[in-house]
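Could you join me in thinking about how sequence relates to backbone shape in a protein? Label the sequence line and the structure token line clearly, so we can match residues to local backbone shapes. Once you have written the record down, we can walk along the chain together.
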Amino acid sequence: MLLLGISATSQSYDRGLKLLAKADNFNKEKVWDSAYTSAKESLTIFKNLQNDSLVAKAALELFYTTNNINYGEQSQYFDLALQNALKVQKPTLLAAVYYMKGRTHFENRDMGEAQPYFLKVDSLANQYDFLNETIVKAVMARSEISRITFTHDGVEIGHDLQLQALELAKKINSEELINDLYLRLSDMNGLIENYPEAKRYVDLAFNYYIKEDNVERMARVYLTYMNYYYAVDDYDNAGKKLEEGIEYLSNKNNPEQLASMLTAYGTYFRKRRNDCSKALIQFEKAKTIYDEIDLKLSDRYMYLMEGMALCFAETNNFEKAYIFYQKAYETKRDLVKKENNDLTRELETKYQSEKKEQQIALLASQKLLIEQQNKNDRLIFLGSILLFGIVSLFIFFQYRTRQKTNGKLKELDKAKSTFFANISHEFRTPLSLINGPIEDQLSSKKLSPNERKNLNMALRSAQRLEDLVDQLLALSKLESKNLNLQVQNTNLPQFLVAQAEAFSFSCSEKNISYTIHIEKDEVVDWFDRDVLEKIFYNLIGNAIKYTPEQGTITIEGSRSNNQYEITIENSGNFIKAEEREKIFERFYKSTTLSPGAGIGLALTKELTELHHGTILVNSEKGGLTTFTVQIPINKNAFESNEIFCAAISKTEEFSPTQEIVNLEKSIVIPEDAPILLIVDDNEDIRDYVSSIFETIYIVLSAKDGKEGFEKALEHIPDIVISDVMMPVEDGFELTKHLKENQLTSHIPVVLLTAKNQVTAKLEGMGIGADAYVTKPFNPQLLRANVDNLIENRRKLQQRFAQEVILAPKDIAVSSEDEKFLERLQKVLDEYLTNPDFSAETFAAEMAVSRMQLHRKLKALTGQTTTEFIRSQRLRLASKLLKVDKISISEVGYAVGFNDPSYFTKCFKQEFGSSPSEYLSK
């Protein structure tokens, strides 16, 4: 009997292992239902065998499976896996549990929740000195999290982590991971424009995957080759690689990848060769495959339809263009509908799971209540009823009295809030009439020192009154419940440092020692920027106001669990204990802090509480006063209506050149995104400003004016944001150099500074700055300034594009732009009609690099160098056509076209009609 029992246990053990292996394979193949069934059965077997280690592995497999099919059981399986992994004390198993949890958050784009789990994996590896595939994958995931920030530092960290992962993968001799990293490193080096390294890594990956005959990876390798050759402007080899990819995939049983490669090849002909006829051949082949495999509900099919629509539009087949645009739109609509259905199903599953748990808890409570009621004595029950009646009557009469009182109090509060709101609005007009004349007087050079001193004092008082008006308005909004939280996800330490740095100038004016100790990290936090900015502004402004000259102010910030603590400490007056209890009350004026009006700290406290936080004050007899603010930074701490919902813009057209793979997901970067240069000596300010624009701009940065000017000359950005006070060369000098150089004179400049004086603003505007934003700045206001300047530049491009030759005429341009255009005019006059006149010749004659000429012309006209030359030739041809006795062919040759048919084709593309049709108009 004993032998039979051992044999049965052994059989169960073997069956459980086979089922677990099956579940793992099904998960890799994304056959979720089969994976769930196998993993569930293996879990039952290992529970019966009381094998905690294998129970943890089976639960982990079920956690991954249910996360993909939304059975609503994810949480219980993760808890089971973690509990058993801790029970058996196996670091490798615990690392696998943490990695799977982090990966799940990562795939759901919840980077802030994913990062701590990957760091736990790293800590376990260091603590117990072990290395396996899980450790390597965790490092790879951390590199992807750093990379998708698209900041300079984030990309650098991501690159270093990929190299670290490659070294670890080589130590465990994992060919699969090594070559996966080769492919990722090729993408990364392409991103940082290290193209030789990008080519080297993709070559290494190619050798491995062609040998392994890994069809999915080979498809990606060919697209990576295409990206590389696009980046180095070698379109011939890009086309060859796409042809090789199509030939390879044609012999494999993977129609989806073949259709994707054919779409990329069609896009190559349309965008890189301007040959829609060849593009449509490839698109039709791709469409046939998608129709055969019935894969029409996908992003790739939508991009194919858009590509075909664009080709038909370019070949003037507008009927078919409309049909395929309609198909693209319907596919996009169906994708959104499917996404919404999936989300609804997920929410319903979660609701049913929670409802089931509540029912179980309710039944248990009811059972306990019945048992207790049976034990109660009848007399006690009757006495309770009598007591309840008496208490009810008492509560009823008390409730009616309080209801009347509350009604009166609400009427008084409403009247008070309305009064404050009205009086605040009425103050603004006279304040504007006070500030304007004072600022006009201060601009005069004839003022005596005493007069200037008195006027500055009056201006500061008016500005102080304006701040008080704003605070009164904020208080009235809080009282009327019109001020609601709008929390967003971003890095809080970075935001705080940027805000704190804005007060450096004010502190230096009073000779105050100003220190900032804020722990930096890359965690994603949830908070309301506007509310926190007001809290921070009031507290630091308060500290500066009450700190004497030669005093000290220290700002500290640190996180604790899901809370963030901010402390602002300053030397100065001692606040008594009885005053500290009332200091946050409205209109309370401390005898110690006599200059205040009693509004700022009251507003700060109410804003902190609105943010679900707390604020405390402590003061020592030595004169050291500390304000401590604690706020929640986890998304779960806020209601759904307190979370700001911003639409996520999608690119109009899929472009394989922009594909960046992040653990089986991708982010598309606009190919023609404008370039933004940020110049500031403070790294945190650079990172914060970069975070505001990084999703829609290619962001460059420099640490001072000298470096900024060098980068501006190299890259010719679309706009520059610069601090004023910097070492080596300040913002005013940078602006002056930019505006005096012909290559950069067109670039709009936004100056950021802590200087709030009118004279400083006038100085910036006087040397050509286009906008002047005072720190601490509102990110929405800064973004609006930048967007307006870019839009104005686009309108100027449209005006220039209408000119036959770019003479300034009545268009408003700077003197340096005029000089550049004059040089441009001379080169065009001499070479435009020469058939051999190319972009290289153009750049050489203008004495600039090809890239500099490309960026300058793009900024002025919206056209590349080649497009500009062709456009100018065609506009010249349109004038020559009106001259009698000159044939169309002669006009084509005269303006630099060697092929009359090509001239006719280009002319029709430019003017919408052929030369003969143009003449007949």
Q: What stands out?
A: Residues 347-355, 647-668, 806-812 have pLDDT under 50 and may be disordered. DSSP finds 35 helices and 14 strands in the chain. The longest strand covers residues 552-560. The domain at 397-479 is CATH 1.20.58.970 (Methane Monooxygenase Hydroxylase; Chain G, domain 1).
